[in-house]
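Lecture notes, unit on protein representations.

Consider one protein chain, 577 amino acids long.
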Amino acid sequence: MASEDWDSELLEEPLFILESGEVYRNPTEVKMSQIVLPCHANHCGEVSVGQLLKWMDSTACLSAERHAGCSCVTASVDDIHFEHTIGVGQVVHIKAKVNRAFTSSMEVGLVVSCEDLFSDQQCKVCHAFATFVARRTEAGKVQLKQVIPHTQAEQVEYSLAAERRRMRLIHAETINDLLSWSTSQTGPECEEHQHAVAAERTRVESVELVLPPHANHQVSTFGGQIMAWMENVATIAASRLCNAHPTLRTIDMFHFRGPSHIGDRLVLKAIVNNAFKKSMEVGVCAEAYQGGEPLRHINSAFMTFEVLDSDKKPRTLPRIRPEPVDGKRRFQEAIARKKIRLDRKYIISCKHTEVPLSVPWDPSNQIYLSYNNVSALKLLSARSNWVLSSEKKKVSLYTLEENQKLCFKVETHVNVPAEQVFVLLSDLTRRKEWDRHYEECEVINQADEDDTIYRVVTPSARKGGKDQDFIMLASRRRPCDPSEPYLIALRSVTLPTHPPTENLNRGEILCAGFTISEELDNLTKISYYNQATPGVLPYISTDIAGLSSKFSNTFSACSEFLERNRDSLASHSPSEL
């Protein structure tokens, strides 16, 4: 590993001191440290990803069981991107803790880092989110106790866990829809190449007998062990394509469809679905049987490999020649998954400040843009270092300057139930009734019940200048529990049907939106957030400098609008709202 890859200041949460004076430690936190020995390593002297997955699964399971107080099983693992490899003699550190518990399942967050004992430096290897389910006990189905976040970091992860769970629950359906849509867009690409490698040549099948060392105390096969066996056959398939030793870079989100137990024969199959210029996708399937019973589908996964040259740079790979029918289907689906994978990595995995202001919207990235939109607002609202800039007409304006970026927050209270405030504010077509900056607002795409794309026209902030228009994705979320606020998140997107025009300046919004919290009976706190961009800053600069009351007037008008329309929604049931 290159020396510049090391991070001597690997992120650690600041200490949180309890009222008793003791240093707080998350009660579900579990740490594992393992020195990499030759028996853990591959041909390159680096820890095999299969071994790392086993360690990660064990650590996450211990964290889940510490919270649940009973045995737990792995239900799913989100996308994993491996940023670095780990060599023999280095130390692997794995930290796991429960971010949030639901009825009988919980999300466990994992951070894996690597330490060089000789240079005393550390680097981040990967992070992951795994879902564990508490097993039924003799008393029946387990009802998990709630996680109580204490630190700011815990509160953020607690809030984001609900959004990640929402994405997992519709993952399979979403992927199937996206594959159907994307394959219809890509068209035929199974061209014949003179030196293409037949996909059949990369096919691998292996069988493993599940023994007691492979299982937990409930005689179920460790999820990490299954993942390690799957990684093994996938690596063999990838090696056959390029006649070289590949490096695993990503594992797509996957779900365990059923349990495996001691005595099972686990059949593992792998094949290269497609080879791109610098990477390849390998599909892996795990099935189990005992005796003469039919095969049970345990798990399927898609893994992306690269082959590195002597300079540790990805090298060009040979083409693949797919098999007829199923092979060509897998070939086309791999092209679609590559785009989906890039969207997920580009939009979800990076910090929201690293995402371009306007990301192209299409059905293949809708769910990921929605996630990024909501999570960016949650992260912004969780910040605690806001500075009060002005307070007029019961409207408070706060600012936050960090890393040469300016954010602002506007806060007020209204005597209207939070649910009604949420309904009224989430319909942006009505915002021009109280916000003079909204001259026009139209719905241009109703993506689903919670996500809508609007076109908004605003007057120029400068005399004689052009008006501005914005293409905005609005994502709204109701709270998962009473302690959370309602959310209306806004960000810019681009649509080919609505390109910029000459008579309007195209404005952009990186992160904005409302959080709505009911503090007392019918007393609701409304907070509006905006990470100021060049298109937004002119509208707020004079207020921040204390030279204007435009924003306090706007949000006073918002309060009047909400109270004026309160009775019009009072007769509706919550389900109608």
